[in-house]
């Protein structure tokens, strides 16, 4: 087993747990996961979402870094198109220092037109804007002087790692990742994306590159009674699936989701594994060894008590069997 991670995106729809309570629970869960052998905490970014999806992942990453000592802290994905690359590099370097060099950045150009409009970005030019900002961002992370838009810039303080923290790309542009980044994190387990990335990386003289493979279910929920658990978490999962589906419908290929009618349809999608401890053990043993087990214990404002029960059951019943 490669590892298990806890993912927070801080969605807080009106029918769910209030945002302030969710943020507190997310930090407590992150600390607990760090103490119980998790390999990472993942944080995501979106803007202007009605359910309050996390818009400031680097701020949250700093809070997680202050509560943990061992886990990697991944921002996936940081939507650099919407950001000032210099100010974002400053924030990232501070988080890297607070964490002692545990920050991993997976960047993306974004696929939600409303977000681009919110920040005054031409949606049709987002790829061009992203690449320009990415070049400046990577340079800024080194702490060395460079030129950007006719200005001489040096970003301080230097990050904990030298020459800089690693930068990977997400999204559906594997050749861009090979050309401009340290690695690639495809959004779906599409072998053609991996093959294209590796081939381009080799062509550029970079070997096979670094690939973070998204094998297995999108996330796992461990329970003694899956049917009862689905009745409890179903509305939250349906909200998440349809929220992503709404974005994906507006941008073809933007995400591996489509709008769903009901909870039963969500169950049949196969994205979410609501399993007993024994089923979870089997799932891990069958899973691609290069992938990770992902937990989302606060999915769409889920009652933290339900999320805690899942995490503890995994640690108490599943991990010992795998070891």
Automatic annotation (TrEMBL):
Pfam families referenced in this protein's UniProt entry, alphabetically: Bac_luciferase
PANTHER family xref list: LUCIFERASE-LIKE MONOOXYGENASE
Domain Luciferase-like stretches: 20-285
Record-given protein name: Luciferase-like domain-containing protein
Residues making up the signal peptide according to the UniProt record: none
Listed InterPro entries: Bact_Lucif_Oxidored, Luciferase-like_dom, Luciferase-like_sf
């Amino acid at each position: 087993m490669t590892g298990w991670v806890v993912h927070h995106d801080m969605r807080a729809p009106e029918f769910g747990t209030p945002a302030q309570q969710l943020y507190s629970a997310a930090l407590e869960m992150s600390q607990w996961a760090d103490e119980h052998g998790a390999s990472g905490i993942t944080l995501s970014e979106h803007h202007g979402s009605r359910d309050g999806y996390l818009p400031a992942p680097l701020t949250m990453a700093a809070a997680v870094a202050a509560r943990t000592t061992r886990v990697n802290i991944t921002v996936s994905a940081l939507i650099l198109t919407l950001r000032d690359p210099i100010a974002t590099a400053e924030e990232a370097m501070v988080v890297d220092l607070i964490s002692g060099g545990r920050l991993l950045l997976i960047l993306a150009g974004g696929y939600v037109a409303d977000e681009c409009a919110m920040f005054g970005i031409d949606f049709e030019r987002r790829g061009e804007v992203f690449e320009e900002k990415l070049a400046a961002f990577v340079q800024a992370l080194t702490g060395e002087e460079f030129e950007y838009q006719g200005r001489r810039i040096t970003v301080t303080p230097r990050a904990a790692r030298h020459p800089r923290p690693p930068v990977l790309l997400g999204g559906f542009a594997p050749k861009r990742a090979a050309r401009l980044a340290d690695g690639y994190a495809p959004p779906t387990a599409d072998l053609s994306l991996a093959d294209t990335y590796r081939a381009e990386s080799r062509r550029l003289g970079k070997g096979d590159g670094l690939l973070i493979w998204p094998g297995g279910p999108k996330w796992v929920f461990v329970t003694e009674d899956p049917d009862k658990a689905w009745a409890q978490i179903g509305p939250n999962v349906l909200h998440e699936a349809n929220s992503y589906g709404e974005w994906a419908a507006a941008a073809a290929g933007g995400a591996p989701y489509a709008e769903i009618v009901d909870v039963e349809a969500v169950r049949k999608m196969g994205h979410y594994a609501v399993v007993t401890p024994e089923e979870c053990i089997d799932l891990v043993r069958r899973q691609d060894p290069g992938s990770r087990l992902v937990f989302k214990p606060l999915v769409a404002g889920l009652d933290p008590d339900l999320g805690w029960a899942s995490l503890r059951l995994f640690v108490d019943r599943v991990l010992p069997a795998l070891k």
